Each structure stands twice: as structure tokens, then as C-alpha cells.
From TrEMBL:
Protein name: DUF4102 domain-containing protein
GO molecular function, one term: DNA binding
Record carries keyword Ribosomal protein: no
Family recorded in the similarity comment: Belongs to the 'phage' integrase family.
Domain of life: Bacteria
Entry keyword Glycosyltransferase: no
Chain ranges of the Tyr recombinase domain: 207-380
One GO term of the biological process aspect: DNA integration
């Protein structure tokens, strides 16, 4: 056994002003001063013929006395042949098992998945079904106690009335249970599947966004001739087949000549920064861009009257005021049906025109084309039809 005198080589005064480097307190306890602002304790030991180092915390959090006590505890384990690092990890897992509420594990699961979500999940769409419909009732339950009956009781009231939201909530809950299982917790990862069997088939039928018949688009387009921000945004939306968000957040820097390149973060379901989308600007679309430029503010082509970009409800309200059932998103359907009825373009080209992903990941990896040259004349043809220039 190493004597206390042989161990306690450092003083509190020295520790407070220790120079950069490693300083031995004896008995395996070391202070490593990395910089003037950063220093940490570690315990060096040998077990089974291998030398290991165990971090004991930073100097700002752990005093000299506390570091010595931690080293003494670790040293006691080494004397009986136990690895203090392994024992500490086991203790942390045991502590986790004691604090395994569904709310805590759901937050951890969300944190682990952020890298897969658009903008790291800042919009909250992934977590909100759990936060609104599951955690208020089940959040305090240990995750190991979550079973199909609890899930049925929780989601039963919205299973048919808010079918899409309920499906999202139960699917997210299934992912949380799988995360808990990966942590080594005892959970029933089949609980959500069993709950679905108890809840039964949903009566809800999804309603599709109303779309305008392609034959009626030219008359509507003609009603947008006044060069207001909203009218110009609607015209560009119709001409390009884009969703509303890329139009609202269109920046002048996205346009180079006749090519509008939308970055992946503005595209639905695109997380890879390489998956930008190129759209060709027809003569009519280029004219709309020029008309919109005087309204540009802070780099956005379609700004709000106050600050930032135009509201996502602006174009929908415009159509409501005109007494129309169709909505802005529906013009993508108008374009897609026109392509089907009036052109002989391939399926892949027609789907790419409305930014739909075609084929599996392996197929897309080998195809490596966005059909831009094939799409270019279709934008021209559609624009001539819409603007009445045929």
C-alpha cells in the first residue's frame, strides 16, 4: 500500500497556479493542465497487465481533496482486481435504469435522431405528436411499464378523429421504445404493434389538397397580372411546379442566368446538402423574376410587408378570397396531369418535374441525373400554355 505521505505531493496553492503540463500527486493521481483555462484530473492504474487512465473531472469542478478521494475509491477497486472504469460505467447504467421515465427517454431519442431531421428538428414536427398526445398522460411512467393497453387508452380518443397525427404519435413512440431497448432497458418493443391491433383499422380517409384542372390554369394565371408580391409569387409557383416554401424563401443568389437552384434544406424530404434541385426558368418565369426584383429585401425575392419572408398562408388566402377550393400546392398536380395528358415525356422526367424521388437509393446512385435537359423544353411548353402564348 502506498503511504498517504507518498501520495499527497501536490498542495492546494500549487494546484491553483499549476503550469501547463502533467503533475503527479502520487499513487496514480495526476493533474493535467492543458491550458491556462483548462485542467483535469485523472487516475492512472494497471490491471491485467494493461495500463489505463480514468478521468476524474475538471479542476474547475473537482477540488484536490475530492480528486484524492475519488482516486482512493478507484485504488480500492484495483486492489481487489476490479477495473474502476468498468465499475463506474456499470453504476451509470444502473442509475439510468432508476431514472427511465418515458419523457426522459423520448427526449434522448429525439436528441439522437436530430442529425437525420431537417434543421436538426428545430421545427419540432418530429417531437410534437409525442409532446402533445403521449407525454402528458404517459411521460411520468417508467419506459418499462409502457404496454399496449396504456397506448390504446392514450391514443384511442384521437385514433379516428385525428388519424394522421395518431399514426405519427404511435410510430414515434415505437422509435422511443427501440431507443430504450438499445440503452439496455427492459421494454416491450412490440407494444405499439400490439396497440395498433387493439385500436383497429382507422376509419379516417386522407383528403387530398384540392387542385385546379390544368385546362383552367390559364384563366387563373391571367387574373394575376397586377405585379404585387403575392401575385408574382403565385405566378412563379405555377410556372415552375415548385412547392410553396422554395418560392417563399427564394433568394437572388439561388438564380444564375436561367437556372434556379433550390438548396436541399428548402426541399421536402431532402437532408443531404448535395441534393439541390435545378429548375429551368422559361421566358415567362424569367419575366416574373425581373418584375419581382424591385420588391426584394434582405436578399429575399418575396418578402413580407413587415419582416422576413411572405407568410406560408398568404397564397392560400388569396385563393380563398377568389372563392376557389383549389390551393397553391395543387398546381403541382395541375402540372403533373398536364404532363401526363399533353406530353410524351418519360415517367422519370414527369416525376422529376414536380421534385418527386424516383427509384430506390441504389438505382438513384447509379442513375446520377436530374433530367435537366429533358425537363427544359417542358418548362417552356407549360409556360407558353399557362401564359396564353401558344
Amino acid at each position: 500500500m502506498v503511504s498517504k505521505r507518498a501520495r499527497s505531493k501536490l498542495s492546494a496553492a500549487f494546484v491553483r497556479s499549476a503550469p501547463i503540463g502533467k503533475h503527479n500527486d502520487g499513487g496514480g493521481l495526476w493533474l493535467h493542465v492543458v491550458s491556462d483555462a483548462r485542467a483535469k484530473w485523472f487516475y492512472r492504474f494497471s490491471i491485467a497487465g494493461k495500463r489505463r487512465e480514468m478521468g476524474l473531472g475538471s479542476l474547475s469542478d473537482v477540488s484536490l481533496q475530492q480528486a484524492r478521494e475519488a482516486a482512493d475509491a478507484a485504488r480500492s477497486l484495483v486492489r481487489v482486481g476490479q477495473d474502476p472504469i468498468i465499475q463506474r460505467d456499470k453504476q451509470r447504467r444502473d442509475t439510468l435504469r432508476q431514472d427511465n421515465s418515458l419523457e426522459k427517454i423520448a427526449a434522448e431519442a429525439f436528441e439522437a435522431r436530430k442529425a437525420e431531421l431537417r434543421d436538426d428538428g428545430k421545427a419540432g414536427r418530429w417531437f410534437s405528436p409525442l409532446q402533445l398526445h403521449v407525454l402528458p398522460k404517459l411521460g411520468a411512467y417508467p419506459v418499462s411499464a409502457i404496454d399496449q393497453r396504456l397506448i390504446q387508452e392514450t391514443l384511442g380518443p384521437i385514433w379516428h378523429t385525428k388519424a394522421v397525427t395518431a399514426q405519427k404519435a404511435i410510430n414515434r413512440l415505437g422509435l422511443v421504445l427501440k431507443h430504450a431497448a438499445a440503452l439496455g432497458l427492459e421494454v416491450d418493443i412490440q407494444a405499439t404493434s400490439k396497440a395498433k391491433a387493439l385500436l383497429g383499422r382507422q376509419r379516417h380517409r386522407p383528403t387530398h389538397i384540392e387542385a385546379m384542372a390544368w385546362q383552367d390554369v390559364p384563366d387563373f394565371y391571367a387574373s394575376l397580372q397586377e405585379p404585387t408580391v403575392a401575385n408574382l409569387a403565385m405566378r412563379l409557383l405555377i410556372l415552375t411546379g415548385h412547392r410553396v416554401k422554395p418560392v417563399r424563401f427564394l433568394r437572388l443568389q439561388h438564380i444564375e442566368g436561367r437556372i434556379w437552384t433550390t438548396p436541399s434544406e428548402l426541399l421536402k424530404g431532402k437532408k443531404d446538402a448535395t441534393e439541390a434541385f435545378r429548375c429551368y426558368l422559361s421566358d415567362e418565369a424569367a419575366r416574373v423574376i425581373e418584375l419581382a426584383k424591385p420588391f426584394a429585401r434582405d436578399g429575399f425575392l418575396f418578402p413580407s410587408m413587415r419582416k422576413g419572408v411572405m407568410s406560408d398562408a398568404t397564397l392560400s388566402r388569396m385563393m380563398e378570397r377568389k372563392g376557389l377550393k383549389a390551393r397553391p400546392h395543387g398546381f403541382r398536380t395541375s402540372l403533373r396531369v398536364w404532363l401526363e395528358d399533353q406530353t410524351d415525356a418519360s415517367f422519370e422526367v414527369k416525376e422529376t418535374m414536380v421534385q418527386h424521388t424516383v427509384g430506390g437509393a441504389v438505382e438513384r446512385a447509379y442513375r446520377r441525373t436530374d433530367y435537366f435537359d429533358q425537363r427544359k423544353p417542358l418548362y417552356d411548353e407549360w409556360s407558353r400554355f399557362v401564359a396564353g402564348n401558344e
